[in-house]
Backbone:
């Protein structure tokens, strides 16, 4: 059934929004999902909130795991209630990925409580380079006064 779903996602010409909320999707599952999404040119919104997706999965989904800019078709990516830590232990940390995302305009990272003041600094550096992101939601994260100041200075 899992393979049928990926095939359907990959070949659908009518699917414009994919919502897989609360399905305990992990980074390893998301890599396969990202491959299927790569070939679907009709998706506009991908809603994956309340899953076990961490930095690596988020980076691969958004297409920032490549050296060249990603051309993922979707413009909205929701990873609310995820497991994002902004770790830099793999090839590209999520802030690095944001520098290469060429299509995502709305990114919802709210309720990722491990996003902190340190993360805010890395995010603001990435946002200085990213020219397509128009909306970034960080509500109810672990960003405090110092992180807010970083954003205020960057914007």
Residues:
């Amino acid at each position: 059934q899992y393979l049928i779903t990926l095939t359907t996602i990959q070949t659908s010409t009518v699917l414009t929004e994919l919502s897989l909320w609360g399905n305990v999707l992990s980074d390893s599952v998301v890599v396969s999902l990202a491959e299927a999404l790569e070939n679907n040119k009709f998706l506009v919104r991908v809603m994956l909130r309340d899953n076990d997706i961490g930095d690596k999965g988020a980076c691969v989904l958004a297409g920032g795991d490549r050296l060249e800019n990603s051309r993922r078709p979707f413009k909205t990516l929701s990873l609310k209630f995820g497991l994002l830590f902004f770790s830099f232990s793999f090839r590209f940390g999520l802030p690095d990925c944001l520098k290469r995302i060429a299509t995502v305009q709305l990114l919802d990272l709210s309720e990722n409580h491990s996003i902190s003041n340190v993360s805010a600094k890395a995010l603001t550096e990435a946002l200085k380079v990213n020219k397509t992101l128009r909306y970034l939601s960080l509500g109810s994260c672990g960003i405090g006064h110092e992180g807010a100041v970083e954003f205020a200075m960057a914007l």
Observations:
- The two ends are 46 Å apart (CA to CA).
- The chain has six helices and five strands.
